[in-house]
Every structure is written in C-alpha cells, then in structure tokens.
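Final report, results section. Input specification for complex C-07:
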Amino acid sequence: MPENLNSMNPSHVFDRLTVCLDMAGCPNRCLHCWLGHGPNGRFSTEDLAWTARQFRPFARSLEVFSWYREPDFRADYRALWELERSLSDGKTPHFELMSTWRAARDADYIPWLKGLGVRAVQLTFFGGRVVTDRYTGRIGAYDEMVSLIEPLRRHGILPRFQVFVNRENIDQMGEIVQLARRTGLADEPAFRAFVHAGSCDGANEALYPIRVTPEDVQRLPEPLVLWTEEHLKRPISEVFGRTEAEWMKRLLDDSRPIGSPLEGPAVLYVDADWDVYPNVTAPRPAWRLGNLRADGAQTVLRRYREQDTPALRICREMPVNQLAAACGDANSQRLFTRGDFLIYLVNRYVRGRNFY
Ligand code: SF4
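Structure output:
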C-alpha cells in the first residue's frame, strides 16, 4: 500500500471520501427500505479505526461514519460520535436523523442531540398505528414516535414527518394530518411534513405493484400536499414524477447509456460482511466493489473510479432504450422520478441475469 499521498498518482487520490461502516444495523425492517434487510453488523470500535486506516492514504479529506442505517442505535452512541470525529477530517454536523428506538429508551439521548445543535429531526410514518407498525416492521414503533414529539419540542427540536405512500396506505394519509393537528405541530409555522413514494429498490422494489398513479396523488389531503411543496420546494407533480408509460416513451427513443450514477464526492457503504458498495442503491452483488478485508481499499477504490461492477458497467455502456425495452412496462401508470426509474431498470436487468 502507498505510504502517503505524495507517493500516489494524484488522479487516484480522492479529494473527498466518505466511508460508512454498518456497525450495528437497524432495529427496524421497513417495507420501503431502499437499503434492504441485510443482517445487522457487529463491529468493534477498533474495526472502525481499522477501516479509516485502510482508506486514509487515498483521500485528501476523509470522513468516516459508524452507520448507514439507523444512527445512534448502539448504546455507546456518544463514544462512536467522538470516535468518528477523531478519525475524520470532515466534521459534518449531526444529521436531522435520529434513532427513535434509542430515544424511547434513553432519557439522555434527546438532550445530547440538542447539545450537538440538532434543531429538527425526521419521524417516518405510513399512516396510523397499525399501518405504521406493519410498515416499520416493529410493534410499538408508532407509539414510540408519537411519545417523542413532546420531549423533542421541549428541548427545542422540531419534528418533521416523512411519509411514504403507496396504493395500499393512501387512505391513511388523513391520519398524518390529524396527528399533526392533535399534537399542535400543525400550528407551528416551521412545521413540515412531506410525502413521497420512495425509490423502487431494496425492500421497496417489492412494493412496485402498489406504487401510486396520478389518480392516487389526487387523493392526498390538501395540508399534506402544501407541507410537501413547502418543504421540498417543488410542486407535488414533480415530487412523484411521471408515469412509467411516459418514461418508456422517452427512453425508447434514446440510444445513449445512462452514464455515471456516481455523482459528487465519493460515499462508500461497508456492510456486515466487509463488502463495499457505492452509495447509489441497495447494497447488492451487482454493485459490489469488493471486500475490504479480502481485496483491500486500493482495489475497491480502483473499481469505484473505473466503475467496474456489473451494474455500473450497464450504466456506462448499455443504451437506455435496450434497458427500457428489456425491463420497463409501456402501459404502467406507476409514478417515478427519472433517476428512480433508471435505477429500478438497472436493478431489474441485473437480477434477470443472475448478478443477484
Ligand atoms: S428505512 Fe431506515 S429505519 Fe427503516 S429499516 Fe431501512 S435503515 Fe432501518
């Protein structure tokens, strides 16, 4: 391995590199989870330090995280936060994501978030209690989230509702508005909730048959539409995108490949088996860059740079009209954004060729 940045080909050094180790996984098994339902990791703090050491020679600025599923799920979340920062050049403030599982069990957690400067956090609902528990994959998830609204506000942290909708739960959307009103959140000028369909990969790909159509979107309650448009700063029609049939018409006329889905600074996910994936879609074999223990960081990063995995090669080389003809449905009224539809096509294509 090269000893320092000066001994390396400058084009092989990343200006910014973020590496996320799935040290503990997640207490939930959400039906919409784009990361899929892989086993929870069981890593030590030395494993995180070792991971940082492997990537450090290849980055001018390195940032490591101890999670890419539920942040702060582990009981030693404070120590992990400190360790992440000591191993990282970049110091991203705490995300507006929290562990509701941890918050419901640890009275020190919300004050700790406040102390880090967190002013808003996201709570994810799918409707009322029964539906939210079923979609979160855990009995009690809904009650836990509702029980956190008051303590969060008391500590100056404003909850924001994220809502995933499909044809099965769309009639539950009024429950979200009622919850916001019942808890007084709807009266807070800064309160926001937003609704979307999510991407169509990972566990969420199984919900393709019940993906929303333009008719369904018309049934969303008005307050939820207004909150969504205010939060995402675009009309609700753009949030949900175009029908699959419309995308098919456009894509079948396009003989260019998708191109690179690796935009912006590099972000890598390291799963419970040390397999490494780019932050594009669900961590699955067709996207796998290598195994950090077996192949090493240099090989993993070369494959990232050269986009050398079956799925990344398809993005680079395969004409999009061929991809659409092979995997799309020209009669489908299901709604997609362009990016979500392209990744859905790639995932369908590679699965059909046994890369999964
Ligand atoms: S969506 Fe988030 S909270 Fe739900 S299972 Fe996936 S990582 Fe966990």
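The pocket of iron/sulfur cluster is lined by residues 26, 28-30, 33, 35, 69-70 (CB under 6 Å). Residues 241 and 338 are 7 Å apart (CA to CA). This concludes the modelling results for the funded period.
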